[in-house]
Amino acid sequence: MDFWRATTLEEQIDTAMGRKEADLVLKGGRVFNVFLKTWEDGDIAISGNKIVGIGSYTGKQEIDVAGLYLTPGLMDAHVHFESSMLSPREMVKVLLLNGVTGAVTDPHEITNVLGEKGFRFMLDETANIPFSAYFMVPSCVPATDMDTSGARISAEDMERIRKLSPRVLGLAEMMNFPGILYRQQGEMDKMKLFYNQKVDGHAPGLSGKELNAYVAAGISTEHECVTPAEAWEKVRRGMYVFMREGSAAHNLVDLLPLLKKPGNRRLCLCTDDRHADDLIEQGSINYLLQIGVAQGYEPEDLIPLATLNIAECYGMKHVGALAPGYTADIVAFDSLETFQPVHVIKGGVQVVRNRKLLWKSEPVLEMPGQSMKMPEVTADSFRIPARPNKKMHVIGVSHTQLLTSKLHLEPTIRDGEAVSDTERDILKMAVCERHHNTGNIGLGFAFGFNLKKGAIATTVGHDSHNLSVVGTNDEDMAVAVNRLREIGGGLIVVSDGEVRATVPLAIAGLMSDRDAMAVNSQIKQVNFWLRELGIPEEYSTFMILAFASLPVIPELRLTDRGLVDVVNFEHEDLWCE
Questions:
Q1: What is 74-314's CATH topology?
Q2: Which residues have C-beta within 8 Å of that of residue 506, sequence separation ≥ 6?
Q3: pTM for the whole thing?
Q4: CA angle 207, 213, 219 (to 5 degrees)
Q5: Where are the domains of the chain?
Q6: By CB neighbour count within 10 A (0-12 exposed, 13-18 middle, 19+ buried), where does 53 fall?
Q7: Which residues, in sequence order, are CB contacts of 296 under 8 Å at separation 6+?
Q8: Residue 30 pairs with which residues in a beta bridge?
Q9: pLDDT tens track for 342-356
């Protein structure tokens, strides 16, 4: 398949004029005009990888799309491929089947584990495939100094990385917003380096003069809004707001009322972090469109949020519309309620026909190296001596938002130790450093996991991706940690000292080297055992656990160095004063 075959300007003009037969014509569909939000009946003529005309045309190859709705290929404004737990090419297969032909990706996760080598791996894996994978250079490697990451990327490193490919568009989400507001030298160096390129934001709750300063620094997007009021203030200050619906963060329904405001050209759709099972069983950006229609919004108002608005946000030329001169990325839907693609055209080549993927990809090019460097643990590694008459700082997790709460709760004490209490849903949690063999283990407690027995653990731990474990007893926690150490990382469920289910993630402890269906089957086994151990089916438990160690989103987190009060950006003792 020649996905990027270009034709000459003369050929395109002759084809548009009807003097030359088109390479491909989509016959008789309902064509969406993203500029006017209207539909028209007609053919789409394609020369090479470009749309050259809409009207009545004949072609060397013709596809009957009568009765189908034709839209531009969908895009994801902000996504971490690693969060799918699929290799980049397996992820792309799933996205194409869902009508997504391009995405702005932030390889922040693998770069935090493997540094520049991880970034290059993602870039190489997405080269010369029927998908437009654009990259942002991770801005925070490490995210903070409150935990231990596998790598460190300086402004000097970023200068080199940003020149690796024209698919590198700018600087990824600037999570260290205090560093911007207080002009920390390292953050200033990064901002100056990317001043004439796109810079993505990550500043939940930022408002007023602080927001003004953040935007003045050159940051122009935000995907962390949770209320319409916050999102609207950021739109008013010139930002693009990405309305997110991931596996753990569900913000879309709350933010959809912004569509009724005049600034909806500054709105885009993104998934951010979405697991393989959700991608396979629900969908990607097409699923977000489905949610929007189900909430009573018009598809004509929603589709631009996944096409032209994203292209305009990132300065992509000739992308995001069905019009002459635009890249021939086209999706044919049979319903504007379900948004399930029948056909997908990428760069003028059909890659999905009658809901079947035509593209056959090569396997993973080259594994990027070992990422589990940590000592073996024992149950004693997780012991917490009690302090009589002291309350504990406890992480209160949410199953609909990434925000956590800072709770002050009485400990459950047994034999002089603070232990998990399943009746009160207060469970012991630990974060083990896995990159440099330091032996660091941060210990704490979390409320809200609903685990009634056993332990669960993961090497997906945003953003430094240390090994996080939560459990009802220390023995099962140790079994879980040691098994992940042996298999190179992944997800695991343990009870009664036995491993019940795993999702091995051989690529940096973040992604599987297996195909999407195999990974989905492994996730189903894990989910079965989560339900067996008391966790409700609707909970994205591993996604919640993965974010419980992220010390940049309020309010309380746990890293390999201990509890972090994110509001005050300082370490917090387990025991309350």
A1: TIM Barrel (3.20.20)
A2: 367, 487, 488, 489, 512, 513
A3: 0.91
A4: 95
A5: 74-314, 379-572
A6: buried
A7: none
A8: 41, 69
A9: 999 999 999 999 999
